[in-house]
Amino acid sequence: MEAKIRSYLAHWTVAVPIVAIAALVLTWGRDLPSPVVVVVALLLGGAVLAAVHHAEVVAHKVGEPFGSLVLAVAVTIIEVALIVTLMISGGEKTQSLARDTVFAAVMITCNGLLGISLLVGALRRHVAVFNAEGTGGAFATVATIATLSLVLPSFTTSRPGPQFSPAQLAFAAVASIALWGLFVTVQTRRHRDYFLPITTSGKVIDAEDHLEPPTKRDALISVGLLLVALVAVVGLAKGVSPSIESAVQNVGLPNGVVGVVIALLVLLPETIAAVRAAARDRIQTSLNLAIGSAMASIGLTIPAIALAMIWLPGPLLLGLGGTQMVLLALTVVVGTLTIVPGRANVLQGGVHLALLAAFLFLAASP
């Protein structure tokens, strides 16, 4: 028994979260020199990869589409924690951090994850096949929540600037979480079959045919290690965030780039999992991860930030600028045209990746 425990602890997906937590305890609240920042950043990346592994173990145990929800909610927890901690310590320059991070998450998931998943699937099998009914409904929900939360604040007149009044913010928060809850109900209960993977031959896959599901004990261990890895990611990311902010300022980039960096960091697990699923001809799983993450990022993050504003100082700037609105509108139009047929090739994947590249370029050079 003791040898088995040692063997289990020797596995990197177990060892890295434990080492990362130890590093978090040793570095919490301290000014870190550059060599230590590099080590912490490496441990942060390792903890993210370990979180991916354990989330996939849990996802395999519970099956689709519940598995995609596990990773989406886990990533959203990281995102909310990072935004709140940075807003507490950042002052006026972080008033738009929630908007920048959530918008970046939407663009990365609906263009980056979706595009690379379609590209990988189409390159391997000439065409990527998915269920247009489930994916289309999910994408419509993302477009609605994004418009309510990120576009309308630029046009309301109750408060100066791109912000909601308290009543408007409460409405947007309730509407966002209600739509997210309705989507989860549809995805996991009433129309679960709309979100199951479909192979290029048209076969619906309700379980992984070639892999034995993990035991209940292994799944519970992965749940615990997933939580440990998530705590490590949040804590270590907070530790290196001053270095990220300083680097952004030193090279003369806009403050909004910090939100892009946060979104890229927290969405790394989703990206890896989506690419792996696409390579196994599970395009629907990849799209569940991409669009589900976008929905969770808005539907859960905005209500959480709205609640946090009870004690956070300063206004919450949510409204997008003109350039960002154009990119969001183009993403919605292109995404709709991509999803409606239920089939995509390398062209659609390339178009979405081009939109992501445009977003990243304009974020750095507005």
Quick summary:
With 366 residues, this protein is an all-alpha fold. It has helices at 2-10, 12-27, 34-62, 66-90, 97-125, 132-151, 166-190, 216-250, 256-266, 268-279, 283-299, 301-308, 322-339, 346-364; strands spanning 128-129, 343-344.
How do the helices and strands line up, and which of them pair or pack?
Blueprint: H1 2-10, H2 12-27, H3 34-62, H4 66-90, H5 97-125, E1 128-129, H6 132-151, H7 166-190, H8 216-250, H9 256-266, H10 268-279, H11 283-299, H12 301-308, H13 322-339, E2 343-344, H14 346-364
Question: How does this model look, in words?
Answer:
The chain is mainly α. It has one domain (2-364): Up-down Bundle (A middle domain of Talin 1). It has helices spanning 2-10, 12-27, 34-62, 66-90, 97-125, 132-151, 166-190, 216-250, 256-266, 268-279, 283-299, 301-308, 322-339, 346-364; strands at 128-129, 343-344. A two-stranded antiparallel ribbon has the order 1-2. Keywords: Membrane, Transmembrane, Transmembrane helix. This is Ca2+:H+ antiporter. One of its GO terms (molecular function) is sodium:proton antiporter activity. The chain crosses the membrane at residues 9-29, 35-54, 66-90, 102-123, 135-155, 167-186, 219-237, 257-275, 287-311, 317-339, 346-364.
